[in-house]
Amino acid sequence: MKKAIGIDIGGTKIAAGIISETGELLQRAEAKSDPSDKEKMFTRVVEAVQKVLRDSSLSVADLEGIGAGVPGKVDREQGIAVFQNNLPWAQFPIAARLREQFGIKRITIDNDVYMAAFAEWKAAEAKPDETFVYFTISTGISCSIIHQGQFFRGAGFAGEAGLIPILSKAAGNMLERLEKASAGPAIGALARKKLQSPDLTTKDVFEQYLAGIPEYRSIIDEVTDNWVQGLYAISCLLDPHKLVFGGSVIANNPFLLDLIKEKLKAYQIPEQQHLLNNLSVSTIKQNNGVVGAGLRVFEEI
């Protein structure tokens, strides 16, 4: 069985895993990120890889290669992390540094959401002629599109769903970017403002909603309204065959799917409603970035 390492690099943590060519996660390890300095950050990536190798009793000689998902803009051909909001890696030659560190020739890098989307696309068993969308709601909001077996990248910035303007009640019924209005941190901020409770977190919001406390119903109602505005734009522009939700906000709260379906149906005309039966929440959850990065070593698209 062929194996590769997948790395999911984030501003809070780095996850590394041993991935089989069939997408099985055989071993997983984490290291805490250190975004204070580019070299310290790279050292933490190395630590995560070394730990997963130790835990699995494998060596680099047993591997086909390494795949790495990096936030922000990347130059895949040159192997460079070009720009990130939360890492100190402007123009950082991540592929060359990994190659030098581990002596592995095959290094594949891509945006972290694209890596996660690849794992979800494989898991969904989308047909070769279909349009597939992975939509992630976490610290930020973004999506990735795989059309007829290939990533749709546009001029390099396709899929930035968080930038879609939506009509936000919290902003006084003014236009606001979807990510600013309703990504994970925004949900907690909205609750703190509405309920005048400075210690509320996003996790608290969902727990209190599920406990049936009425004050939280309007918060979840407003947040899902915002998401659906962005999702309807995707529905109109792409008319996807399948859409999978990921990211910690929705992966940890799968009950949201029914609310989304109900609200999205109200926007859609009948010819668009086929999508309602093809919306799902990730079953790979927080491991999709690691799995996708490892799988891309075996299959580049």
From TrEMBL:
Source organism superkingdom: Bacteria
A GO term for molecular function: kinase activity
Keywords assigned: Kinase, Transferase
Keyword Ion transport: no
Pfam families: ROK
Family named by the database record: Belongs to the ROK (NagC/XylR) family.
Protein name per its UniProtKB record: Kinase
Species in which this protein is naturally found: Neobacillus mesonae
Lineage: Bacteria, Bacillati, Bacillota, Bacilli, Bacillales
